[in-house]
Amino acid sequence: MKYITLVAFLALLISCDSSRVYEENKDFDQPFWVKASVPEFTFNIEEPADAYNILINVRNGFEYPFYNLYYEYDLRDSLGNTLKQDMLELILFDQKTGEPLGSGLGDLFDHQKPVLEKFQFPYQGEYTIAFTHFMRLDTLPLVLSVGARVERSVD
Q1: What is the C-alpha R_g of the chain?
Q2: In the chain, count of helices (H) and strands (E)?
Q3: pLDDT for the residue numbered 33
Q4: Which of 13, 15, 40, 155 gets the most CB atoms within 10 Å of its CB?
Q5: Rounded to 5 degrees, what angle do the CA atoms 142, 106, 19 make?
Q6: What is the pTM of this model?
Q7: pLDDT at 6 over 50
Q8: pLDDT at position 154 over 90
Q9: What is the pLDDT of residues 55-102, one digit of tens each?
Q10: CB 102 within 8 A of CB 92
């Protein structure tokens, strides 16, 4: 009974996030991100006049071998046309101290960073964002999941 109450309470907390339009995380089958694995996230925009923030979610292990993660995003419309594309950097650990950044529990850490801020979609409809890592290793150890969040920009 306590478990059911806890799950219901957590669901209530999550549903209170009024700015969120979409959020999904994809766990990798193994504890690494292979460059050929390109997580894609498809979402619907109903009010293109509004400004939106798009964020990347990354979960990594403490033993991740680098302090950062270079990645490319590709935002496409429903016809497959690229609207925005860029390479960005996500800092996972403090460069000087090696302390993990983000929120963590045990040896797992979650990071959320803006990819695009105050972005206006050209029209109502379906959009897809895809992420590819751009690190030197083809197989990136201890990256456990990647996700996307789309939220209304509030000023």
Answers
A1: 17
A2: 1, 11
A3: 97
A4: 40
A5: 80
A6: 0.85
A7: no
A8: no
A9: 999 999 999 999 999 999 999 999 999 999 999 999 999 888 888 888
A10: yes
pLDDT tens by residue, 29-53: 999 999 999 999 999 999 999 999 9
Q: Are 83 and 75 in contact (CB under 8 A)?
A: yes
What the chain holds in terms of domains, given with CATH numbers, is 20-152 (2.60.120.380)
* Overall residue count recorded for the chain in this entry: 155
Look up residue 131 and give its amino acid: F
Of 35, 43, 26, 19, the residue nearest 129 (C-alpha): 43
Longest pairwise C-alpha distance within the chain? 49
C-alpha neighbours within 13 Å on the C-beta side of residue 23:
15
Q: Could you tell me the two tokens for 5?
A: 């109450």
* Percent over 90 (pLDDT), the chain: 77
In one-letter notation, the amino acid at residue 39 is P
Which candidate, 24, 25, 116, 111, places its Cα nearest to that of 69?
Answer: 111
